[in-house]
């Protein structure tokens, strides 16, 4: 499913001999798809086909037992399967030919293996996104400090910022590019997304089998990503190959409605609880993102407003008032801060009439930026400025204002790349859908219908729930595909 596992080996239903499968260096073959079983076995004209991810094809007519060298020469993508087997450490392997495992246990084994690989790539991908955002803020602050503080502030002059500032900035940018290239080379995002998607397909297939939906039209891979090409097609082919392999190698799954609904670990109840918890988590994360980013932006705007007012004071009288305000905020900081806090609290309660919490936070942050941050940073720049440098206080205000803007942009970058907003809506819709399905199933169980009618109606509900769950997962996969990991531009 990821670019290092793109080969698809198709093995006919008549070919179940261990000797030929062992030709691929004795490793387990994980991507397998069976063509329709013929009514009467015939000669093996095309027992094995290789379907690469590229446009070229390579086919081997099995008329005799091939040598390992012939197999490797024909199967140009066989090394991709070997890489996958090495990645999982050979945990997905079965004795041949007997005993056959249970189909549900076999699917769970594949799901646990895929989840382990997906979890490692997911943690690296999310860490990469957050590190890129943090490095963007550091780089932008360093650039602003080099441009505005290296020649005006005593501490910047003492540490020699003008000598190493640009070198450090360049190094940070190179580190960002390195993280981006490493993520692309090791396919962190692709593996995380594709393996998670395939795992959801296997989850749905397990529910179908436990509900007695074993017909060809009830294969989960046949209703997932239908008609797509490219990297998304690999997800469908990989999941379908696992389903076919499990169906060939395992005993048929037994009807088990207790695993569908009625307990906390059943399919419907578990999915409903999962979507509810994740919808709440995403809503909280989005609320934090909105409030924090708008607060940083409004505080920066407040500092810019104060600075614009200060710079516009051309007359001596207005300039004297501005300087007095700055000095007063510096020398009487405690009293001035408490006065500003009282003003902010009053404004906060007055703005409670607004329903949007972002408006209240932005208005309060704007006042804090004008009344607290700007005077305090101005006084800080004045105290640490070099003798005779009249631009030192203004430069300090500008650096802090730009820093707040950079933090707001980094927060938005993380939320956008992780698609929190799209996930929050999708999780809430899925929770409502499974909740409605659960109520329908309970209503059918409490009805006076005969057992066959109950089974038929409950199977229809599970089929619909599974189809909608796959549609939600498909939308999740497409949403993340549109947000690839990349450095935060503009730093």
Run of helices and strands? EHEEEHHHHHHHHHHHHHH
Distance between the termini: 34 Å
Backbone CA Rg: 31 Å
> Which stretches are low in confidence, meaning pLDDT under 50 for 5 or more residues running?
1-66, 329-333
Number of helices in the DSSP assignment = 15
Averaged pLDDT, please? 77
What does this structure look like?
The structure is a single chain. The chain has helices at residues 18-21, 68-74, 78-88, 103-148, 154-158, 161-186, 188-210, 231-249, 267-311, 316-331, 333-350, 357-384, 392-417, 420-445, 451-481, and strands at 8-11, 32-33, 48-51, 58-60. By secondary structure, it is mostly helical. A 4-stranded mixed beta sheet has the order 2-1-3-4. Strand 3 (48-51) and strand 4 (58-60) form a beta hairpin. The protein starts with 7 loop residues before the first strand and ends in a 10-residue tail after the last helix. Mean pLDDT is 77; it is low at 1-66 and 329-333.
Quick overview:
The protein has 491 residues and is mostly helical.
Question: Main traits of this protein?
Answer:
disordered N terminus; mainly alpha; 491 residues; four-stranded mixed sheet
């Amino acid at each position: 499913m990821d670019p290092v596992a793109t080969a698809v080996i198709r093995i006919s239903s008549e070919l179940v001999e261990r000797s030929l499968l062992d030709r691929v260096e004795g490793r387990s073959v994980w991507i397998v798809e069976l063509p329709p079983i013929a009514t009467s076995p015939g000669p093996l004209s095309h027992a094995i086909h290789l379907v690469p991810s590229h446009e070229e094809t390579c086919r081997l007519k099995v008329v005799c037992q091939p040598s390992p060298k012939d197999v490797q020469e024909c199967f140009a993508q066989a090394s991709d399967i070997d890489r996958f087997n090495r990645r999982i450490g050979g945990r997905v392997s079965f004795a041949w030919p007997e005993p056959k495992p249970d189909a549900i246990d076999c699917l769970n084994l594949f799901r646990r293996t895929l989840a382990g690989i997906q979890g490692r790539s997911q943690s690296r991908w999310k860490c990469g996104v957050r590190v890129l955002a943090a490095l963007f803020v550091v780089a932008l602050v360093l650039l602003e400090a080099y441009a505005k503080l290296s020649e005006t502030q005593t501490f910047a002059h003492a540490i020699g910022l003008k000598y190493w500032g640009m070198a450090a900035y360049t190094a940070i940018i190179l580190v960002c590019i390195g993280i981006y290239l490493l993520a692309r080379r090791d396919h962190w995002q692709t593996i995380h997304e594709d393996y998670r998607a395939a795992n959801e397909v296997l989850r749905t297939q397990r529910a179908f089998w436990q509900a007695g939906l074993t017909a060809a039209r009830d294969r989960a891979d046949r209703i997932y990503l239908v008609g797509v090409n490219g990297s998304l097609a690999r997800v469908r082919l990989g999941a379908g190959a696992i389903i076919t392999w499990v169906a060939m190698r395992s005993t048929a799954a037994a009807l088990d409605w207790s695993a569908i609904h009625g307990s906390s670990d059943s399919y419907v109840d578990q999915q409903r609880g999962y979507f509810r918890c994740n919808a709440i988590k995403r809503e909280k994360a989005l609320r934090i993102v909105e409030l924090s980013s708008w607060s940083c932006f409004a505080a920066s705007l407040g500092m810019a407003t104060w600075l614009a007012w200060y710079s516009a004071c051309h007359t001596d009288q207005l300039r004297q008032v501005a300087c007095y305000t700055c000095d007063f905020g510096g020398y009487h900081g405690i009293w001035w801060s408490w006065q500003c806090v009282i003003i902010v609290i009053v404004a906060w309660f007055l703005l409670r009439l607004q329903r949007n919490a972002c408006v209240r936070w932005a208005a309060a942050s704007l006042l804090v930026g004008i009344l607290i941050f700007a005077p305090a940073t101005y006084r800080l720049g004045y105290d640490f400025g070099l003798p005779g440098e009249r631009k030192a206080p203004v430069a300090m205000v500008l650096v802090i204002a730009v820093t707040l803007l950079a933090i707001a942009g980094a927060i938005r970058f993380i939320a956008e790349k992780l698609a929190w907003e799209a996930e929050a809506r999708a999780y809430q819709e899925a929770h409502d859908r499974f909740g409605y399905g659960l109520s329908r199933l309970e209503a059918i169980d409490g009805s006076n219908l005969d057992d066959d009618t109950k089974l038929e109606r409950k199977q229809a509900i599970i089929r619909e729930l599974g189809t909608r769950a796959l549609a939600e997962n498909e939308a999740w996969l497409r949403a993340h595909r549109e947000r690839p990991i990349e450095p935060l531009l503009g730093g």
